[in-house]
Amino acid sequence: MAAENGHGPSASEYIQHHLQHLQKNFSFESVKQTSIVDFSVFNLDSVFCSVLLGVLGCLLLWMAARRATAGVPGRFQAAVEIICELVETQAKGVIHNETSRKIVSPLALTVFVWIFLMNAMDMLPVDLLPQIWHTAGPALGFKDYLRVVPTADLSTTLGLSISVLLVCIFYNIKIKGLGGWGHELISAPFGAHPVLWPFNLGMQLIEFVAKTVSHGMRLFGNMFAGELVFMLIAVMGGSFALSGTGIGLAIGHVLAGTVWTLFHILIITLQAFIFMMLTLIYVGQAHDAH
Predict the structure, then answer these.
(1) How many CB atoms lie within 10 A of CB 114?
(2) By the number of CB atoms within 10 A of the CB, which of 25, 58, 134, 264 ranks highest?
(3) Active site residue ranges
(4) Alpha carbon of residue 89 to chain centroid
(5) Of 102, 121, 131, nearest to 2 (Cα)?
(6) Tens-digit pLDDT profile for residues 133-182
(7) CA–CA–CA angle 83, 85, 89 (5° rounding)
């Protein structure tokens, strides 16, 4: 990215540029109206990276299943087995319905691996893929914006949490029946008296909305903060290079990036685990009656 005056971008311009998404505005024209109704704006970089990493995650799990042996497992098989056992153990502790676990456990495993891979994109150098896209994007008719961490995009994390909400609604209806769940919505938590029905329904709706929003916001907030720290470290290194500051500070920049990257490995793993655990807990709550 170059500034319009021919000089390098300032720190704020650099960060603002790197926080822009590659977007596409899909608008639909109504047949009966002349106005254009803008339904949504798609962040194409988030969609592309998340789909690509989802396919990659499924491919890795499929390869592990195909190569699984009864003898001494290799490192790859052992790692996948440890993750599978971890997820299955957590699922057994939360969801006691064995039939449901046959679907929920693989779902939780997929969520964990998928989110881990999306979070891990933050480990790449800040300017690596955006710089490649800077030359290819405009040639293809796109702007040179590109963000490669899908979970640093609120639309991605809220999309995941809304999907979990839909799974919870499905199991509420499947386990309790439509009538049973409807009765629960108006009778809990204050009681089944008709006067309390509106208050019960309001509390239930608030609970569903709060869990969904906090589920997505927690992942987004942590990954956005981590991405921002990497950008600040990159700005610091660029400032040292342009100012001709001593080699000691340049080495400090490299060390700062390395230390934060090593620490960030814990963050990306922990956030994937937390999202997976909350998914299991929310689905488990859908099996419980108030």
Answers:
(1) 23
(2) 264
(3) 214, 218, 222
(4) 23
(5) 131
(6) 877 766 666 677 888 999 999 999 999 999 999 999 999 999 999 999 99
(7) 120
